[in-house]
Amino acid sequence: MQPEKKKGVVLVVDDTPANLSVITAMLNHGGYEVRPAINGEVALRALAAKLPDLVLLDINMPGIKGYEVCRRIKADARTQHIPVIFLSAADNLEDKVEAFRVGGVDYVTKPFQVEEVMARVNSQVMLAQQRQKIETLMSFKDELLRTVSHDLKNPLHNIMGYTDMLMENIQAGAVDIADSLAIVERIRRSSDVMYHLVVTLLDLDRLEGGIRLEIRPTSLNQLLEDVFGQHQLAAENKRITLEMQQHDAAYVVPVDPARFAQALSNLVSNAIKYTPEGGNVAVVFGHQDNKIIIRIMDTGYGIPEDALPNLFKKFYRVNTVQHRREEGTGLGLSIVKAIVDLHGGDITVESEPGKGSVFNVVLPLP
Ligand code: ADP
């Protein structure tokens, strides 16, 4: 059996061992991992080692007092986001006021009731986790805005420059048809780049929002033939051979044919794009247990190991000279991952820089 996922880690600081064990048992029972600390010094050391999701902090302890521990937690940028709930023997207004003044979020009076402490811990941990999620989303939003505006700014800038050029030629009465056509073609190319970025982003947004797939029995052999057909020309232009494993029987898989083809097409397109002239791109597929595995293999530039964990992140592009030479949005693999996820499948990658890469798509069969 899988161990149940913990709700969070609570650092409990109390100088009375009996209290410590009661609270530990209670929080364990409530689904928390507990780290006990018998005084303020131990608590501060524990905090430096690993950050908990919440601190339950006794006020009256020998050595560093609870208020001081809290003050230090709130003064340190690494720990100041961690909620602190105070435990105190006396139900005394001054204590409470001081507890909030030093940065505590809540206060429990001893002798405490299990239900009350659990409810307070639960709500503070949930709040802190939601705050964290919002922060992550906000910083992702900032990054998204920065990247999109940067990726749109360059082509837009080109378009402005070329239109200025055209206008000047017209105003000077020096319009050369061939020149003008070349300028217009560049404008068109820059617009294509921008259009492609916007369309891809909107598509990704829809996929991640969880569109409904139109699943039906589909011949994988046929789907791959079609995908290869789309990329034959690009491969020929780079003298890359495209190979597909031939099977006698049709591999019928339950997929949304258009979406699954889109994922495979992105993978084949990447394999061609990131493989030098004269290379080879091959797709093999077959059953394994109750799954279908499709492997897209290339003899290309490969992917450095430190880039692998980022590969499926939005806008991520491998930063080597060879990779950078290719045009791209860094969204293709995010689209692939979203489509594979929607099918309940999985995608992994193995790669050896300078030798090539293998993308494995694993699809569960009903
Ligand atoms: P892009 O639009 O840049 O191709 P993707 O999301 O499709 O974006 O891929 C992200 C990055 O992963 C690419 O920029 C490229 O650096 C790397 N990559 C993807 N596929 C391959 C491959 N088959 N071989 C080597 N690198 C690859």
Instruction: Give the second-level CATH assignment, the architecture of the largest domain.
Output: 2-Layer Sandwich
> What's the CATH C level of the largest domain?
Alpha Beta
What's the number of domains? 3
> What's the story with the biggest beta sheet?
5 strands, parallel
Shape: elongated
Strand order in the sheet with the most strands: 2-1-3-4-5
CATH fold label of the largest domain: Heat Shock Protein 90
Distance between the terminal alpha carbons, to the nearest Å? Answer: 23 Å
Compressed to H and E, one letter per element, the order equals EHEHEHEHEHHEHEEHEEHHEE
Strand fraction: 15-25%
Query: Total helix count?
Result: 10
Low-pLDDT regions: none
Summarize the structure.
This protein folds into three domains: 9-112, Rossmann fold, CATH 3.40.50.2300; 133-208, Helix Hairpins (Orthogonal Bundle), CATH 1.10.287; 216-364, Heat Shock Protein 90.
Describe the secondary-structure layout.
Elements: E1 8-13, H1 17-29, E2 32-37, H2 40-49, E3 54-58, H3 66-75, E4 84-88, H4 93-101, E5 106-109, H5 114-171, H6 177-208, E6 216-219, H7 220-237, E7 241-244, E8 252-255, H8 257-273, E9 280-288, E10 291-298, H9 321-325, H10 332-342, E11 346-352, E12 356-364
Parallel strand pairs: 1-2, 1-3, 3-4, 4-5, 7-9
Antiparallel strand pairs: 6-8, 9-10, 10-12, 11-12
What does this structure look like?
By secondary structure, the protein is α/β, with parallel strands linked by helices. The chain has three domains: 9-112, Rossmann fold, CATH 3.40.50.2300; 133-208, Helix Hairpins (Orthogonal Bundle); 216-364, Heat Shock Protein 90 (2-Layer Sandwich), CATH 3.30.565.10. It contains ten helices and twelve strands. It has a five-stranded parallel sheet with strand order 2-1-3-4-5, with helices on both faces. A hairpin with a 3-residue loop joins strand 11 (346-352) and strand 12 (356-364). Helix 6 runs parallel beside helix 10, helix 7 (220-237) runs parallel beside helix 8 (257-273) and helix 8 runs antiparallel to helix 10 (332-342). The longest helix has 58 residues, at 114-171. The mean pLDDT is 93. It binds adenosine-5'-diphosphate.
